[in-house]
Amino acid sequence: MIGLLLALYPARWRERYGEEFRAVLESRPLGPFDFADVFIGALDARLTRFRFAGTAGIDGGPLMMLRIGGFGAVVGGPAWFIGIAVSSALGGHAAWMGVALVGTVGLLLALVGLSAFQAHREPRLAWAAFGVPAIGTIVALIGTAGMMLLPADGLMFGTWSPWGVWIVGLLAMLVGSIFFAIATYRAAVLSRRAAQALGVTSVAIVVVALGLSGGAGQMPALAIAACLAAFAGSWVWLGVSALRRGPIRAIAPA
Predict the structure, then answer these.
(1) Which residues pair with 157 in a beta bridge?
(2) Contact 140/97 with Cβ under 8 angstroms?
(3) What is the rounded distance in angstroms from the CA atom of residue 115 to the CA atom of residue 135?
């Protein structure tokens, strides 16, 4: 895998920095952020052939990725909640579904950017923390797009309606957010209180969703909206903690 990552860089770059960069990659487990970091560094090296700024950002993590994740959380959380809340109140208004779609994309960017260095201590947890909610977010995106483009009674995949696809994606995103909160808390890179809030609100929404689907009665719409708003607010809290801190430095394996 490390050989493939090195191959992304131009030959001249590898001649000058290849051995040092290989040693950095081999020194610790790699996580989602690291792969994104390498891809961006390789793209920059190929677009700027004669400007090689030392070894790649993997030694400390580029501030740009942290900022992208922070802004994704700060913008994506409120847009996701407002889009869902207003669209639901208006009976599935397409324009507000589009706002929810933008918010979902923002949360996906947050997952990528805020995954920084979690894998350096617990690789399996960090990959689950990134992979499960990322897949759920993509499925939710597909479901949201289907609700915007297809008729109200249209089917998307076999007997699956766009709303059903969105619900499956939402549940996966919520369960994955619990993993993400645990990984963020244990890595102690971003705010631990924000991570706790994300975990608690994710669990609350999952419990509510399972209760409603199991026929446990009707929960007041205001209470459901409060749970969704708290979940979105937790992402904003994480994003703000990322934007307020400096560059993340490498964390040695435990």
Answers:
(1) 160
(2) no
(3) 15
